TrEMBL record:
This is Diaminopimelate epimerase. Pfam families: DAP_epimerase. It comes from Paenibacillus solanacearum. Its main location: cytoplasm. Its EC number is 5.1.1.7. The gene is dapF.
């Protein structure tokens, strides 16, 4: 089976194409091959599959074997994979990729000298209803809600971008001990389907630093949906403007929350790391 190892800001994936590549036990496959010592090494496995509602469908299995509804960095990688492998006409720079959690999502490629240099994704409207995120909180939106983890009190804003996020604003996000606070928050009873956890520090109204503990993958270098959730939470809590950079350990994403259509737009890179056969 041929695979392509790809990354978006260091959030890395094993990308596989076609229904024949989807194993009966996709969970075990992800656990085995995402392992960084005994496998290929990745934060998740991405399947690019046929769709009857879009050009292609993308499914993402986290490195712990659980399936996520959506993945911002993976959808950019899937778009580049589709373009690079001639799976759409070479003249096209607009395509639509379906995800389980957010439905069909329009994607625009920037192509320079025949190579994809940036990918802009319409990530859809954020879900702000607490029960729909899901959390156990019957409110909309859920902002600055208290939660305790590892003996420390935090306040979070809940946002779903198809997958669930809790965004915590702190003074020093880049030095947060993710291994201490990430697991108890990911598994907190407030979050019935577990949750992705973002710690963010707003430096300016158009710039925030963010570090992430991902549901099913632990600390990753970047999270596209988490960056979208961070900007949305920044706007909801009066900290940020609707257009800004979310700076992650692996690099920067431009995030825009359009007032007119209520959609969140994410722009960033996608790269091939290497190709192989297993
Ligand atoms: N890294 C991703 C999100 C991947 C899925 C996530 N771990 C979840 O379980 O929801 C991104 O770039 O959005």
């Amino acid at each position: 089976m041929n695979f392509t190892k790809m990354q978006g800001l260091g959030n890395d994936f094993i990308v596989l194409f076609g229904e024949q590549a989807l194993p009966a036990d996709a969970a075990s496959f992800a656990v085995r091959y995402c392992d960084r010592n005994f496998g290929i090494g990745a934060d998740g496995v991405v399947y690019v599959l046929p769709s009857d509602r879009a050009d292609y469908m993308m499914r993402i299995i986290n490195s712990d074997g659980t399936e996520a509804e959506q993945c911002g960095n993976a959808i950019r990688c899937a778009a580049k994979y589709i373009y690079d492998n001639g799976l759409i006409d070479a003249s096209r720079t607009d395509l639509v990729i379906e995800t389980i959690g957010a439905g069909p999502q329009p994607v625009r490629l920037t192509v320079e000298n025949g190579a994809v240099s940036a990918v802009r994704v319409d990530m859809g409207a954020p879900i702000l209803n607490g029960l729909a995120v899901p959390t156990t909180i019957d409110a909309e939106p859920v902002t600055e809600y208290p939660v305790e983890a590892a003996g420390r009190q935090f306040r979070f804003t809940a946002v779903s971008m198809g997958n669930p996020h809790c965004v915590i604003f702190t003074d020093d996000a880049v030095h947060t001990n993710l291994h201490t606070y990430g697991p108890p928050l990911e598994h907190h009873p407030l979050f019935p389907r577990r949750i992705n956890v973002e710690f963010a520090t707003v430096k300016r109204r158009d710039f925030a630093e963010m570090r992430v503990w991902e549901r099913g993958a632990g600390p990753t270098l970047a999270c596209g949906t988490g960056a979208c959730a961070t900007l949305v939470a920044g706007v909801l809590t009066g900290r940020m403007d609707r257009r800004g950079i979310v700076s992650l350990k692996g690099g920067d994403l431009l995030i825009e929350w359009d007032e007119a259509d209520n959609h969140v737009y994410m722009t960033g890179p996608a790269e091939v790391v290497f190709k192989g056969t297993i």
